[in-house]
User: Fold this.
Amino acid sequence: MSLLFTPFKIGSLELKNRFIRSATTSYWSDKRGIIRPEIFELYSRLAKGGVGLIIKGHLFVKESGKAHVGMAGLSNDYHIPELRKLTDEIHKNEGKIAAQLNHGGMLSLGDRVGPSEYLVGTHKTRALSSEEIHEIVESFGEAAERAMTAGFDCVQIHGAHGYLISQFLSRLTNRRTDEWGGNLKNRMHLLLEIYDTIRRRVCKKFPIMLKINCDDFSPNGFTIDDSVRVAETICRRGLQTIEVSGGGIGGQEPLRQRARSLDQKLSEASFAGHAIRIRKATKPTSLALVHGIRSLECMEALVNKDLADFISMSRPFIREPDFVKKLKAGQKASTCTSCNKCISRDVFGKMMLRCNLD
Ligand SMILES: Cc1cc2nc3c(=O)[nH]c(=O)nc-3n(C[C@H](O)[C@H](O)[C@H](O)COP(=O)(O)O)c2cc1C
Assistant:
């Protein structure tokens, strides 16, 4: 039998197969960040469709760190009851669900803060004080505790895609000269503080995952060499699973080529070339790879070559929530064309997440 349909563990959490629905915001929560009923239906279909783990779209840990209209939150106890209903729904359908914790930093809607002053479009962002950084660290810990109370099976720290943690990791956006910036050891300080704080606040067995960029694809940003060192450091500390992604502030499309693998079978997996290096540095920690993976052939190659334990996908599940069932039944690839009509700027807060391919 294909390895893809065999169980695997994230720490003590057993998943029925190797498929993960990568975090995908539905941009459909109310103004306070409380999820709306339509979202249950979407998640229910995913669980019934057989995916091993669903990572809920990112949740803000602080109101001021909300990254877009319709984003859900876990910054207050009033977020818990509806999320509890969601996790109950997933468990009723034999699924597992993770809470992805995030702070928008410079990409927040309101208070645009980051490691240093930086120009995002026409907005100049403000540098966080050390006291504010400590508050944010605590808010990740509190949100993780709420995630446990709300019935999530694990949490994922969002350390990718140009949000606050990745802003601290990148030398492009982090120009601080104190203990939170400068060399890579200082630039990863925020991430490690957040990890340690969550670890202290949740029960011992509760798994913690991290989504990290293998590269920001910016000429002066976070590189694969940096990523390997950060990944190795946090995995040695006991992280359960690392999800490898890429892209962020200052990213340039042509530079993305440097993350690809030369192996034909892996060519659709956008970051497979870089992921090999992260895999070598982090084994035996389990690894999920995301971005561009669409065909069964590529998925098989990734697990058979031991490059990844989990196949993580977002857009294919927007189009076909039961994609895993379909693969098991013989479908060879996703029908998602990566057209990105599901994530265009005009849909945020205006319509519920859906595939808009004609
Ligand atoms: C509509 C949409 C919403 C997304 N929301 C999130 C999110 O909340 N957190 C996150 O880490 N990534 C988010 N992503 C990125 C995906 O998790 C994933 O990394 C990316 O889409 C590449 O995977 P794919 O090629 O399988 O779609 C989102 C992507 C889409 C299309």
Notes: The first helix runs from residue 37 to 48. The mean pLDDT is 96. Residues 3-347 form a domain with the TIM Barrel fold (CATH 3.20.20.70).
